[in-house]
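Retro notes (design track)

What went well: tokenization of the new backbones is finally stable.
What didn't: we kept losing track of which sequence belonged to which structure.
Fix going forward: every design gets posted as structure first, then sequence, in one message. First example under the new rule, 241 residues:
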């Protein structure tokens, strides 16, 4: 890991708004972005495609080690490419999330993906979105945010997101999926979902995405990680200075 690079960790359960916050931070600061959930999702997807059983730790680890994956930060979000093919839609489905959570419970798979994640910490900085960014992958990070929201709010946001993509799902089903996924993520023996001791907990339930971003940016300024918002594409005033 490049120890000198600034890292902001954004951890928390599914649907708390980590993705939106992380993309907002990376864009506004002009930093790199790690969507670690997408990494586990793509491992699950690659296993399904190669007919590898998701509980076969040795085989799944092999797939994780050989993964030829690329992430692109685009205005619509992070797109995911596997062996040159855009698999964004497939990996972001509900099934993709459930498969990810199964492969993510395998210790050797997590170990295989650890260095791949750490090497993304490069100047000018990295925003790392996940479950164990602050506890395991970047324990020295100068700013760790643990974003939470009520299960109901998270299920509702997820419903809006999936309906926007044309997937048909029911709210009660989403709520029970979220609770099941939380339980699995919190109970696993390796890297369970929990805030780092030095994480700042933000409850996004009553907040808009813009308010959450505003809170995170002021924390970044307080920690000396940035003095101003660096992305000139979003702030034309900066270009003309
Ligand atoms: O964040 P996202 O919903 O894309 O993550 C999918 C699944 O991948 C999570 O439910 C979790 O099981 C797993 N995951 C993980 N560690 C991370 C990121 C995601 O275990 N750092």
């Amino acid at each position: 890991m490049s120890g000198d690079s600034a890292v902001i960790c954004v951890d928390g359960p599914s649907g708390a708004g980590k993705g939106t916050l992380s993309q907002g931070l990376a864009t506004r600061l002009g930093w790199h972005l790690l969507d670690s959930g997408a990494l586990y999702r793509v491992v699950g997807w690659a296993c399904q495609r190669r007919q590898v059983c998701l509980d076969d730790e040795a085989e799944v680890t092999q797939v994780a080690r050989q993964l030829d994956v690329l992430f692109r930060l685009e205005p619509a979000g992070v797109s995911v490419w596997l062996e040159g093919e855009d698999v964004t839609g497939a990996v972001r489905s509900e099934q993709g999330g459930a498969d990810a959570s199964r492969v993510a419970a395998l210790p050797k798979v997590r170990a295989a993906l650890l260095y791949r994640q750490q090497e993304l910490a490069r100047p000018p900085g990295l925003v790392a979105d996940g479950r164990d960014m602050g506890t395991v992958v970047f324990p020295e990070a100068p700013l760790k945010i643990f974003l939470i929201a009520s299960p109901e709010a998270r299920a509702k946001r997820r419903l809006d997101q999936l309906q926007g993509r044309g997937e048909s799902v029911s709210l009660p089903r989403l709520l029970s999926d979220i609770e099941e996924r939380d339980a699995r993520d919190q109970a696993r023996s390796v890297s369970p979902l929990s805030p780092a001791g030095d994480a700042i907990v933000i409850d996004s339930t009553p907040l808009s995405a813009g308010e959450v971003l505003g809170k995170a940016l002021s924390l970044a300024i307080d920690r000396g990680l940035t003095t101003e918002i660096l992305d000139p594409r979003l702030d034309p005033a900066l270009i003309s200075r």
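Added context from the reviewer: The domain at 6-239 is CATH 3.40.50.300 (Rossmann fold).
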